[in-house]
């Protein structure tokens, strides 16, 4: 599959949606809480990506598959990590969000390169996601006209409730999930776009602010749609003796598709900032439908999510989702699992 063929579709809306605003918001305005209900058990994050639901689909067919994946994963948080829609209308968007919300599990959404290619205004998705009367379990932040490029740039604070010395319960954030928008297409290079420098600066401010508030750097994971160049160099390094200079090691799955991300020359080196700040221990992307690998690379897990449906192009043996589990005794320790499901009944 030559993914460049997908450039043939209209992309004016995604281009406009990546504009940066002018307003400066307080850092706390980018945060939203997700409760770790049972601190005696690991916290499980399920990534569902590349659903690509359109107005011509038989929704119930795909919902059954997604439901089987969710049931098997048993998550505490669901991340719809981009390309949930392609040529959808408002009704399709509402149907998918209502279906996910019906599980009464915290969930969130990041933008992929196709989500805006639908029959609705480019503000529609973030507007309904922030309407609590519609989706009570959605965790999403949209700061209008802010000075950070893109829309889905926010932090999920995974917190536990603990008793203080006075016997009163207090919320204590133990892990953070950073969601960013990786945008759509870069028309200067006729390639996929990348995370901008102002987003990286925002991420740095958020990490340092959290460290100051909590007295230590918190462990975190990061979710966005289009992978970094390091995802592909990690796979190549994993074939070298000792994993090359970055000690690349394949933990799970495989990488079969290359070229789905920005070039090293265009990327603004988010990975370098991740290493410098020493908070983020896993980066989860999607976009490439026949990749499902987890590779340790400079002690950071680079995770390709499992393609959630058979829409667009796919490997029938690689449909489902990917789970990151945060260890309940030590949140700096993660484990990884690929969930595979089938459309067939009884399997």
Which strands sit side by side, in order, in the main sheet?
Answer: 1-5-6-9-11-13-12-10
Count of helix runs = 7
Q: What is the 3D shape?
A: globular
Head-to-tail CA distance between termini:
28 Å
- The SSE string, one letter per element, is HEEHEHEHEEEEHEHEHEEEEE
Beta-strand percent range:
15-25%
- Main sheet characteristics: 8 strands, mixed
Helix content: 10-25%
Low-confidence stretches: 1-17
Class of secondary structure makeup: alpha/beta
Radius of gyration: 19 Å
| DSSP summary, beta strand count | 15
Global mean pLDDT:
92
Description of the structure:
This protein is an alpha/beta fold. Helices cover 21% and strands 24% of the residues. It is built from 7 helices and 15 strands. It has helices at residues 12-17, 59-73, 90-101, 124-129, 197-214, 230-238, 270-277; strands spanning 31-35, 43-48, 77-81, 106-110, 154-163, 169-179, 185-186, 191-192, 220-223, 249-252, 280-285, 294-297, 300-304, 320-326, 334-340. The strands form 3 sheets. It has an 8-stranded mixed β-sheet with strand order 1-5-6-9-11-13-12-10, with helices on one face. The longest helix has 18 residues, at 197-214. The radius of gyration is 19 Å and the shape is globular.
């Amino acid at each position: 599959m030559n993914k460049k063929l997908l450039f043939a579709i209209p992309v004016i809306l995604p281009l406009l949606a990546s504009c940066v605003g002018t307003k400066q918001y307080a850092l706390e305005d980018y945060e939203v809480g997700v409760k770790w209900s049972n601190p005696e058990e690991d916290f499980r994050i399920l990534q569902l990506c590349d659903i690509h639901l359109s107005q011509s689909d038989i929704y119930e067919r795909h919902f059954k598959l997604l439901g089987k994946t969710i049931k098997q994963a048993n998550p505490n948080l669901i991340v719809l990590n981009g390309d949930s829609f392609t040529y959808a209308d408002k009704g399709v968007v509402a149907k998918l969000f209502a279906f996910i919300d019906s599980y009464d599990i915290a969930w969130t959404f990041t933008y992929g390169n196709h989500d805006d290619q639908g029959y609705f205004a480019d503000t529609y998705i973030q507007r309904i996601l922030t309407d609590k009367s519609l989706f009570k379990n959605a965790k999403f932040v949209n700061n209008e006209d802010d000075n950070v490029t893109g829309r889905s740039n926010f932090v999920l604070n995974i917190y536990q409730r603990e008793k203080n010395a006075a016997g009163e319960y207090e919320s204590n954030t133990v892990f953070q999930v950073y969601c960013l928008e990786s945008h759509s297409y870069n028309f200067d290079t006729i390639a996929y776009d990348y995370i901008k420098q102002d987003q990286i600066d925002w991420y740095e401010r958020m990490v340092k602010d959290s460290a100051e508030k909590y007295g230590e750097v918190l462990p975190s994971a990061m979710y966005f749609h289009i992978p970094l160049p390091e995802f592909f160099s990690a796979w190549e390094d994993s074939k070298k003796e000792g994993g090359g200079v970055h000690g690349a090691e394949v933990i799970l799955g495989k990488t079969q598709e290359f070229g789905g991300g920005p070039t090293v020359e265009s990327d603004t080196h988010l990975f370098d900032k991740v290493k410098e700040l020493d908070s983020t221990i896993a980066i989860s992307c999607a976009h490439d439908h026949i990749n499902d690998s987890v590779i340790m690379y400079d002690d950071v897990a680079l995770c390709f999510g499992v393609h959630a449906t058979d829409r667009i192009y796919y490997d029938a043996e690689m449909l489902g989702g990917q789970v990151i589990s945060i260890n309940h005794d030590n949140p700096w320790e993660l484990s990884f699992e690929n969930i595979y499901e089938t459309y067939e009944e009884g399997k």
